[in-house]
Amino acid sequence: MISKFELNRKGVAELMKSDGMQAVLNDRASAIRKRCGDGYEQDIYVGKNRANARVSAGTAKAKKDNLNNNTLLKAVK
Questions:
Q1: Residue 62, in any domain of the structure
Q2: The whole model's pTM is what?
Q3: pLDDT (0 to 100) of residue 39
Q4: I need a labelling partner for 59 at 20 to 30 A (CA). Which of 5, 40, 41, 51 fits?
């Protein structure tokens, strides 16, 4: 017997924007930022469909470091 599965899209959208999801993203972004070193910053924002985390080079020194060493890419791995 095969049962049909129906995804509750509204529930998934609420989950993806929830405080709990933002906390998980904040923890992950913080760990990545710490691996990058000084001059990197993190940000959490809620978009149309989900919460998003961003880690970026915030200073000229960090931007040069990332350009020369792919620091952000390496920190994500």
A1: yes
A2: 0.83
A3: 97
A4: 51
